[in-house]
Automatic annotation (TrEMBL):
Protein name (record): PLP-dependent aminotransferase family protein
HTH gntR-type domain mapped to chain residues: 21-89
Cross-referenced CDD domains: AAT_like, WHTH_GntR
GO terms for MF: DNA binding; DNA-binding transcription factor activity; pyridoxal phosphate binding; transaminase activity
The species this protein was found in: Vreelandella titanicae
Keyword flag Transferase: yes
Keywords, sorted A to Z: Aminotransferase, DNA-binding, Pyridoxal phosphate, Transcription, Transcription regulation, Transferase
Superkingdom assignment: Bacteria
């Protein structure tokens, strides 16, 4: 028998097998539930597969695959000679928001990352995975076409005739139910299915809200630096943009005149795009108070909030919106795959009616099959399992980039915003020429997106927005090595 803290592991019962459930799945659930429920504590050494095989009557090969799955999802760590141990922080804590009062200083993130490169670079690399270090792209390798097709097929076979002809303008009820459940359990938002509106994604949601409330020459408050694509939505509506700077507490409204009435304030409080700062609890309350006094709609972009690598996220801003001023926008395009084109919004009743009227007028463009397929995916354990695996893989890719840069070019840069999301900020040393670095990198197939393309009025030190999510591990290591070499001083 292995030595160490494994008594709790031996006491774990293997549930009786219901029809259609494999021993592998039962063993996985027993181990995972023991970790999540606290029977197995952080750092506890687990029994060996041999001991568990004798205890549970399950083959060692089956148990080995269970251990590999738990390791892949981040529940346990495995080391030759040391056995398997419960991870210091289990992945469920990264998916579920913690109470604000318990986590004022907790780190979390969400971005609406940039298409920060010049137009020529954007057009060339925007939709291509495997191009380092293009930001705002999810990995296409984490959900297989076969797996997604299986959910679609299951949903289509169960589809009712009326669903083939007509779906509510707000979206399929079964999907809205699943989204509302997810928001209650993981973002701290007390909501119902009837409050959810299905869209093509966050920018689609923002465009609908903008068209309902913004008239030419209305003021809209945005973050600086911020997300250029959203700025363009407001500008195309004829809005005048007011730029609120970002500091360590997030959005700072101190420079916005109290005499100006803003129709909208657009914010990324969970993980500011692109800097990665978390809006403090104090700033969140100040923003909501300011919005109430000025009759301003606050658009909360909760992009990428599923992927936290350091701690559990704070609940969404919407969760403390007692005055009904916040429009909450979310998306599955990063959690699953970029071209899914499926998002949602949760709007206050007054605004929801206006959005629905507009939605009726311009037509509805989210296919029912995709909605029902996603609902089927979310209904079982597969969706949260996918998020756990994805978070683990993105953290691994991030670590590869950071460790390789550290080995290649120590002291030649500073990193921030790395605790969540699909990108980080690499601040250059004072003797480095940003333009020369970008051009030299492109010659070697490495795309560097300068932070300055996200800035409007604010002036920041030279830095690069470094996306790592849409790479393989080998690509991440190779590209980081190339970048590290470029960061070194040029021999005189």
């Amino acid at each position: 028998m292995v030595k160490g803290k494994n008594t709790a592991g031996l006491d774990l019962p293997l549930p009786t097998s219901p029809v259609g459930v494999t021993k592998s799945e039962l063993a996985y659930q027993a181990m995972r539930d023991g970790i999540v429920n606290g029977l197995l504590q952080a750092g506890d050494r687990l029994p060996s597969t041999r001991v568990l095989s004798q205890r549970w009557g399950v083959g060692r090969g089956t148990l080995e695959s269970v251990f590999e799955r738990l390791q892949l999802e981040g529940y346990i760590t495995r080391k030759v000679g040391s056995g398997s141990r419960v991870s210091a922080t289990i992945p469920d804590r990264y998916l579920k928001a913690v109470n604000t009062s318990q986590a004022t200083a907790a780190h979390h993130k969400e971005p609406a990352m940039v298409e920060a490169a010049p137009v020529s670079v954007r057009k060339r690399y925007r939709a291509q995975v495997g191009i380092p270090f293009v930001a705002r792209l999810a990995s296409p390798f984490l959900i297989s076409p076969a797996e997604w097709a299986a959910h679609l097929q299951r949903a289509m076979v169960a589809m009712q005739p009326e669903q083939m002809c007509s779906v509510e303008p707000q979206g399929a009820w079964v999907l809205r139910e699943q989204i509302a459940k997810y928001l209650r359990n993981h973002r701290g938002i007390d909501c119902l299915a009837e409050q959810i509106l299905i869209t093509n994604g966050i920018r689609h949601s923002i465009d609908l809200v903008t068209r309902c409330v913004v008239k030419p020459d209305d003021y809209v408050c945005v973050e600086d630096p911020g997300y250029p694509a959203v700025h363009q939505i407001f500008e195309q509506a004829g809005a005048k943009l007011l730029y609120a700077p970002i500091d360590q507490e997030g959005l700072n409204l101190g420079g916005i005149s109290s005499e100006i009435e803003c129709r909208i304030a657009y914010v990324t409080p969970a993980h500011q795009s692109p800097l990665g700062e978390i809006m403090s609890a104090t700033r969140r309350l100040e923003l909501l108070d300011w919005a109430q006094r000025h009759s301003t709609w606050v658009i909360e972009d909760d992009y990428d909030s599923e992927f936290n690598y350091q701690s559990a996220p704070l609940p969404a801003l919407k969760s403390i919106d007692t005055m009904n001023r916040v429009v909450y926008c979310g998306s599955f395009n990063q959690a699953l795959f970029s071209n899914l084109r499926l998002g949602y919004m949760l709007a206050p009743p007054e605004l929801q009616r206006k959005v629905l009227d507009l939605w009726h007028t311009v037509g509805r463009s989210v296919g029912v099959s995709e909605q029902l397929g996603l609902a089927a995916f979310m209904k079982g354990p597969a969706f949260l399992r996918h998020l756990r695996r994805s978070r683990q893989e993105y953290q691994t890719l991030r670590d590869i980039v950071l460790e390789t840069l550290r080995a290649e070019a120590p002291g030649r840069y500073r990193i921030s915003g790395e605790h969540a999301g699909f990108h980080l900020i690499l601040w250059l040393s004072s003797d480095q020429d940003e333009n020369m670095l970008i051009n030299a990198a492109e010659q070697q197939g490495v795309v560097l997106q300068p932070l300055r393309h996200c800035c409007r009025e604010i002036e920041l030190a030279p830095a690069i927005v470094l996306g790592f999510a849409a790479l393989t591990r080998a690509q991440a290591k190779y590209a980081a090595r190339k970048l590290g070499q470029l960061l070194l001083p040029t021999p005189s």
